[in-house]
Amino acid sequence: MGRNAICANKRRNNRQIAHPVLLLVLVVLGLSPAGGQDVLRYEASVDCMGGVFTVTAYGKNRTQLEAAVTESLEEAKRIDLLLSNYKRDSEWSKVNRLAGQAPVAVSRELFELLETCLLYSRQSEGTFDITVGPLMRRWGFFKGSGRSPHRSEIRTAMAAVGYQNIILDSKAQTVRFQNPSTEMDPGGVGKGYAVDRMVSILREAGITSAFITASGSSMYGIGAPPGESGWKVIIRHPAHKDRSVAELVLKDQSMATSGSSEKYFTANGKIYSHIMDPRTGYPAQGTLAVSLIAPRALDTEVWAKPIYILGRDWAARHKPKGMRVFHCPEGPEGNQWETTCDWLQ
């Protein structure tokens, strides 16, 4: 879930905030009043989950806008405190420390999220697996940019990997690890879960036009900005950021992107990304980037990993109903960064 950031609100009024984005660039249009009535724009950000969460919202009541956006960003901070594996006092870290020795009682919220994660694991043939923590450490992706581990290190890590090691007791509401060395990694669920919670808060507050982006990799468009049909987004080439490979409009939809260029290293002419195949113990090969569009942010963030790992043919057959997939395969050997991206039919 990124570095152990201290969450602090950074409100910005009436101007666009520029953040570095590896695979995505957000283009927001329609800033003029609609229908002759004054429409206010309010934007605020928070440093959280190793990146920046930003909310841009439109409405006619400034007090309502500010309160709703602030509450949604506070929710992102709360979820960071719940799920972070960098904060020792988070509930997620407590489970990682203690569940290998005995069952650990957890909140209903965390228990239900873990139940959902195990369901995703079964549906994705084990390619989504929150127990990849030991592998991420061995490959140097926990706090670094990666390294090549010895095969014996990988074998040791693999002994603790496998979602089947997580034992949930719904009656006692506890979590236990079958293997004491098992370690959960929230990197594949945290941002998507937070974005969905933020969307709910904004909608409950009566906000009908807003855009949420979580570190540029997970985003959601509520309604549309004034005068537009939706929130316009450009997908950049995974290796050449000056090139766009697709444009789309999000309206009451989420989008998530996973790609090799987010965090990787090269060895012997091969790209090794931070996206780990939990079945093999090695970084996934064959894909440079995928972008997914669906109604829920948690779905797009989670399914980006299996589709990245299993590839285009598997995704064409097994992607969830109603989900759109934009796929960028690796180029030919010796020139992996060259790619031809397109939408799955």
Report what the structure shows:
It is a single chain. This protein is α+β, with helices and mostly antiparallel strands and about 350 residues long. The protein has a domain at about 90-185: Orthogonal Bundle (T-fold), CATH 1.10.3980. It contains 7 helices and 19 strands. The strands form 5 sheets. The protein has a 9-stranded antiparallel β-sheet with strand order 1-3-4-8-9-12-17-18-19, with helices on one face. It has a 3-stranded antiparallel β-sheet with strand order 2-10-11, with no helix packed on it. The protein has a 3-stranded antiparallel β-sheet with strand order 5-7-6, covered by helices on one side. β8 (about 210-215) and β9 form a beta hairpin. α1 packs antiparallel against α6 and α6 packs across α7. The longest helix has 22 residues, at about 60-85. It is globular and about 65 Å long. The two termini are about 30 Å apart. Mean pLDDT is about 85; it is low at about 1-35.
